């Protein structure tokens, strides 16, 4: 690669809101055969909104449970926590006192309140806690998940108390960007920690055929590695702390600009706008650069 061609490309990237940290990645991007997209904040807007609480049974102390939820989520840094906090604060709920708060990566949070342990998170977290989700509740949750909603459960150490469906709309430009990536012969993958029904619903709407859901942060990097072992040259796009190991593992890591600092540090390129169409600009830029080089 001639230094001039690369300098030109880096400059053009900057004009288009693409910060190229590693010039070598321009050449690698040209060879990419697969592109792995994170769901939350990459395909979706990443501004989740909590909906109506579905109570697991009548007669629960709803105000107290809401106070527990608020207190626990106030300790979390997850975007889903923000959605729940916003909803409960709008209802003027006051947080209770929390002890022994713990964040369980890829699953949720737990804490002790007045001597009882509470869990907030996905189905796996309920399973790990030995909490049974009654079939009637599973059915309602599955219906919501099929509508692309993420289901957040809250339980104590014994019983499910409630769940909250959370929506995170798909960005207007995502479907168009996926189509264009496929037109460049890239195999497009959706990779998420969210549940399989939610992931499949999103995938269907943007026409992605390869879906991996309920993937823990450490396994996101493993997924990229598996594709590489199959001979694919992998580009990965993500925004979260969770995505950092996968961004580092990928042949080309692309961070979304509104994402976390850690994601940007792990990536080879950063898109200043959180719009997937800029991935195409980056790939086109790499094609143009390689053409000039040869
Ligand atoms: P992703 O960013 O790919 O959606 P994460 O690994 O961050 O996935 O989270 C996976 C799942 O864990 C979420 O979809 C959610 O169900 C659950 N979760 C994580 N953190 C929290 C939290 N603070 N409150 C409730 N649920 C959470
Ligand atoms: Mg994300």
From TrEMBL:
Subcellular location: Cell membrane
Family: Belongs to the cation transport ATPase (P-type) (TC 3.A.3) family. Type IB subfamily.
Protein name: Copper-translocating P-type ATPase
The species this protein was found in: Adhaeribacter rhizoryzae
Residues of the full protein shown: 398 to 691 of 748
